[in-house]
Amino acid sequence: MKLSSTNTLLISTVTVVLNSLGTVAVDPQGWYAANPGLSKIGLVDQSINQITDVYGRIRFFHGTNVVMKSAPWYRSSNFDPPNSFGLQDVQNLQALGVNVVRLGHHWAGAEPVRGQYNQTFLDIMKSQTQLAEAHGIYILVDVHQDVLAGQFCGHGVPNWFVQSNWVPSYKKFPVPQKIIPFATDSNGMPSASDCGSLDWSVSYLTAAVCNAFGRLYNNYDNLGDSFASYWKKLAQQYVTTNNILGYNLLNEPWVGDSYANPSLLVPGVADHVNLEGLWNKAATQIRTVDNNTLIFFEGTTYDILSGFNNVPLGDGSRSVQSYHYYKPPQVGTIEDTFKNRIQDNQRLKTASVLTEHTMWMGDSTQMTNIQFAVDKADQYMMSWMGWAYENLYNSTQQPYPELAAFYSRAYPSAIAGTPTSFHFNSTDKSFALVYKVKKAITAPTEIVLPTYTYPQGYNVAVTPANSLVQFVKDSGTLSLFTADTTADGQTVSVTITKQ
Ligand SMILES: *[C@@H]1O[C@H](CO)[C@@H](O)[C@H](O)[C@H]1NC(C)=O
Ligand SMILES: *[C@@H]1O[C@H](CO)[C@@H](O)[C@H](O)[C@H]1NC(C)=O
Ligand SMILES: *[C@@H]1O[C@H](CO)[C@@H](O)[C@H](O)[C@H]1NC(C)=O
Ligand SMILES: *[C@@H]1O[C@H](CO)[C@@H](O)[C@H](O)[C@H]1NC(C)=O
């Protein structure tokens, strides 16, 4: 902008400096002083199916999952991998350049007695969220479950959810996975040794588990309403918190009662028959207290293409499809999945994020597949979260170097314009980003250059020269402000090389 003869431009606390052309130069320090902390997430840019922040930047996320699958339903704050999520944990993640954690918020921990929330538990979850915020990490609030309930050797819903008389005795868990139902204690819980004899993923096909999911979806005894009320409670907790990427309604929802309606097993059918109604119910409750936070919704785990007719409340501008990639149940490559989810995005007018994929030590085929996945995520411009944080550590409580290398890639966490492409080369650690600047965005592009990957620093080359103003925000982040002289829509490319 041109300096006028009046001093009105100078009244802000931001220091205004002049460059040699006599125009107002960008002032990185001033911008950060005026806009401290993590920026709130904004809408989905429905023209390119990407997440924005409140400054209009396109945002990308690399991260991991932290989910405590048993009481007390949260990780300890004392560093003790794989059992902790405290200061040392978030510092380690920050050094790897991780900017998001999908953090399990178990309903079982939050509402141990029906209608009575455990505020102590909810406050612990919020304090972990705030700890992450202090280290530059966003949180995806995740109501997690696997096989729904303790009564089914799984976890997720509170113990009061499942009633023992829902199925006749000959159909009790885990029939037909096993011919004879398990013995249970006075609380209806099977023994640990019986549970240990099962392949949990097959347990979804048992009569009792299908029946219980069916009752959640058809709001038996207002159980769907209770689920939605829990989401309202979570939204009340987090509505003013800056570092919330979104609300992930339910992890890996099963199809429902496929014994009563076998068509639910056809990929995509359960999405619109069962899930859509519950997602709308929960989203309605969230929106009574929080109009803005993105709502992440999942389809059933083995869908090839999404079967939803509508995203929650029909508003794709605040909805993100949360999907997972494991093989099995997926049959194709992750590239096929990315292409399918982009097709879903275009139909549903939303964005999508890979919220779980394999990130643990395996044989050379698996490690090659992880490399392929993170490379393809760059190519298709997909944000991702590995499963899971605890798998990062080896027996010496150090990150496995092989896994740390996957987490500590360079990537653009924020782009002040429209991305064309980005790519991290895991061999020589070089990174290239191309985008078209949007002059209306005064916030900077931010590239995560993890100290783990660039311990001696990095070199930066920008084309056209001087189109961006460089600023080292912190040891792991390079900021690039659009120079005043750069035209709107100018294509710029940034190349990083390791020192
Ligand atoms: C609430 O959560 C806290 C923290 O885990 C726990 O100590 C307490 O026993 C819980 N209260 C109930 C009623 O479950
Ligand atoms: C949400 O937006 C609607 C429409 O603008 C408004 O009436 C309502 O008060 C808002 N609710 C909250 C919780 O901000
Ligand atoms: C564990 O990680 C450390 C640090 O990255 C590494 O030096 C060591 O070789 C690893 N040990 C194993 C058993 O992987
Ligand atoms: C990555 O860098 C290596 C070494 O410089 C180079 O041989 C390779 O072609 C690069 N890969 C890609 C995909 O650019």
UniProtKB/TrEMBL annotation:
InterPro entries: GH (IPR017853), GH5_C (IPR041036), Glyco_hydro_5 (IPR001547), Glyco_hydro_b (IPR013780), Glycosphingolipid_Hydrolases (IPR052066). Residues 409-496 form the Glycoside hydrolase family 5 C-terminal domain. Residues 1-25 form the signal peptide. Coiled coil: none annotated. GO terms for biological process: carbohydrate derivative catabolic process; lipid catabolic process; polysaccharide catabolic process. Belongs to the glycosyl hydrolase 5 (cellulase A) family. This is Endoglycoceramidase. It comes from Umbelopsis ramanniana AG.
